Amino acid sequence: MVTAVLLGIYYFWYLMTVANHVRLITVTKLSTKVVFAMNQIMHLNLIGAMAYGVFSRHFANGGIQLYFIAILNFYIYLLAYINTPIVFKKPKKEEEP
After folding, report:
1. What is the DSSP string of 38-67?
2. pLDDT tens for residues 63-95?
3. Direct distance between the N- and C-terminal alpha carbons of the chain, in angstroms, rounded to an integer
4. What are the extents of the domains in the chain?
5. Which own/partner pairs from 13-16 qualify as long-range (CB within 8 Å, at least 24 positions apart)?
6. Which of 14, 24, 78, 79 has the fewest CB atoms nearer than 10 Å to its CB?
7. Contacts by residues 55-61 (CB-CB < 8 Å, ≥ 24 positions apart)
8. Nearest-angstrom CA–CA distance, 54 and 60
9. Measuring CA to CA, which residue among 39, 47, 7 is closest to residue 21?
10. Structural contact between residues 50 and 59, judged by C-beta atoms closer than 8 angstroms
C-alpha cells in the first residue's frame, strides 16, 4: 500500500514536470528536443520493464532480461557521449613581420 501511494506521488510529480517541460521545449533547439524525447522514451521503457519484473533475479526469460540490461547500458553510454564537453581550438593568427 505504501509503495502504491509513493508511486502515485512520483507519477503525479513526473507528469507535472513533463507537462511543464513540454511547454518550454517548443522554443528550444532541435538537439534539446531529441534528448528530451529520448529520455522520456527510455524512462517509460525502463519503468515498464521493472513493472514486468525483468530486473528480478528470478525472471524466467534470460533473453528478455539481457535485452533490457543492454538497452539500459546503451542509454547510459549514449548520455555520456552526448554530454561530453567539446573543446574548440582557435586557429593561431600569423604575425605580420
Report:
1. HHHHHHHHHHHHHHHTTTSTT-S-HHHHHH
2. 888 888 899 899 999 888 888 887 777 777 776
3. 80
4. 2-82
5. 14/43
6. 24
7. none
8. 9
9. 39
10. no
